[in-house]
Design goal:
Radius of gyration of chain A: 28 Å
Number of domains of chain B: 1
Structural class of chain A: alpha/beta
Structural class of chain B: mainly alpha
CATH architecture of the largest domain in chain A: 3-Layer(aba) Sandwich
CATH topology of the largest domain in chain A: Rossmann fold
Shape of chain B: globular
Strand content of chain A: 25-35%
Order of helices and strands of chain B: HHHHHHHHHHHH
Oligomer: heterodimer
CATH superfamily of the largest domain in chain A: P-loop containing nucleotide triphosphate hydrolases
Radius of gyration of chain B: 19 Å
Number of helices of chain B: 12
Helix content of chain B: over 70%
Order of helices and strands of chain A: EHEEHEEHHHEHEHEEHEEEEEEEEE
Distance between the termini of chain B: 28 Å
Strand content of chain B: under 5%
Number of helices of chain A: 8
Helix content of chain A: 10-25%
Number of domains of chain A: 2
Largest sheet of chain B: none
Strand order of the largest sheet of chain A: 5-6-7-3-8-9
Shape of chain A: elongated
Amino acid sequence: MNAPLIEVRGLGKAYPKVHRNADRLRSLMRLMFNMRDRDRIDVLRNIDLDVLRGESLGLIGENGAGKSTLLKLITGVLTPTSGTVQVHGTIGALLELGAGFHPEYSGRDNIAMAAALYGLDGARLRERIPEIIAFADIGDYIDEPVKHYSSGMVVRLGFAVVASLKPDILITDEVLAVGDESFQKKCVRWIEDYLAGGGTLMLVSHSMYHVQKLCRHACWLRGGEIAMVGDVFDVTQAYLAYHERKSAAVPERAEIARAGLEFNVVGVELNGVDSEQPLMLESGANLRIATRVRSRDGRVPCLAIGIVRADGTAVYGVSSEMDAVAPERSGPDEYHGEIEFAELTLLPGSYAVRVHAMDSEGVRLFDTVERGIVVRGASREFGLVRLAHRWIGVRDAKPAARAADGADA
Amino acid sequence: MQVARLTLRFFRRELRNRFAGSFTGGLWALLQPLVQLAVYAFVFVQVFKSRVPGVDAPGYVPFLVTALWPWTAFSEAIVRSTTAVQDNAALIGKVALPREVLVVAVAASSFAVHLAGFVAILIVLAVAGDGVHIAGLAPALLLYIPLFALALGIALICAAVQVFVRDLVQALGQIMMLLMFAAPIFYDSAQVPESMRGWLAFNPFTYYADAFRAVLLHHGEVGLGRTAIALATAAIVLLAGHALFRRLDPHFEDFL
């Protein structure tokens, strides 16, 4: 329904390797005589991305994933090595700290220079200076050189300048993290108004809270490539789950000859599906776990079922022995049991179901099989599970700012 | 339009930079050349007893001034703007802007400061009746146009190369010193031995030294042919400098 404001096609960026001074001279010669530099480090590869008018896109990813590089390519600070970037509209960018302020000059001078860099002429600048100074709210520091500013003040000033320009596209790189609580709130409120007024946002942040609050879509960069792009909740959950898995760092268990065990798990079905792929579940859906255990000596096993978060934090665990039930015999030396969790209250995110085979007494653990599940849904609640709750002595206060969110599909 | 406005703003910042923290501010721009003039007058005229050969030759002080001030503007513009891109690495890394603006602003500020000093000195010399033809001021100012184009062309090349090869600015100081003594600034072309005089023409500044003296002191003359060559050289160097700068510009960020 509307053309993209930013079109990124097959974008790639590689930096030359410059270890020694001789490399710099060699690079210069290559550039002058139009030769390709073979010795390069790829930081971005094959990025395709569209940002529509009115969209709010969060860029997430680990350090060094290429987020800042992508923003710099879009703002035109960097030149792509391959591919193209097309921008149809004015960009207001806050890349890292400072936004290009000169440390020796006063805040007021830097405002004037920044405004000139964004193409504001003298008259319009004079009109807006009081507004900028009021927004930055740094008091008498406005006439001090920027080198005497705290990093928070620099960000305040930078944000104030960009805010006053009311650009078509606002690009910010991890700037909210620096300001203090009240300024962060001010910025968030400003961005919400800006989005409600049809503004377009690209935000880099390591705070999933900010990303989820301000963006409706997210793009996850991993190792210079797009790992996932889509609805902000899906992408941030996948990203967080990835981190949880990474930090869990499960030590590689030596593969035991499972067949020789007294009890071993031979089949696990989640909602009737036997697959190594994680099961997608809607928040509040039912989860049915069917288990088959082989018993070497034909004795009745005890089934233990647990749900853990992707990083290994236990959410809930229960065994057949605890509930005083036993699996049914389903073959010569096979037992079968099913458990159902109705209306699962797990919050959106990635989890794993662990099925353990234990001896009849529920004392010794013989085998474990793990299956992933992903609970989908849009929720900004914290934690692992939704606890039953109700508010008392409150009134209805639905926010109006996100009302304009229906602008595009 | 926006580029012009931006250039003007950087130019003003550059000028303010030069006089930042001094009481006299802009006045210093006029005071300094006069002090310098007094020093040269003492050293060259009183100590070295330098004279310009010839029957109705001008005094040594106006002779020196008419070539040395344009040279100062020329060489300072090149040396200072060589680091213009490198010095603004922080800005270039955060804001998209036409980088030529930085070079133009620095080069223009050097010319502005030394042009003001030049005019001030010429007026002082003319009032003192030292053989300066003040009517030659208008053509002298016109001469600054190709001189600036030449300086800017070289500055664009140096500023672009400096990003990659950081030794350039050190070497440039020495090269400029060499060029200064290899141009008829402290001496007259006629004083150079016949066998070596031809080499002087290869110094791009030789034409300007001679031309400034021709219009301001009526000392020697430069002819249309040399003027045409000088104008063409200035235009070609400026275009080449701009082309090279443009070619390397997309890669600055990778090397800053």
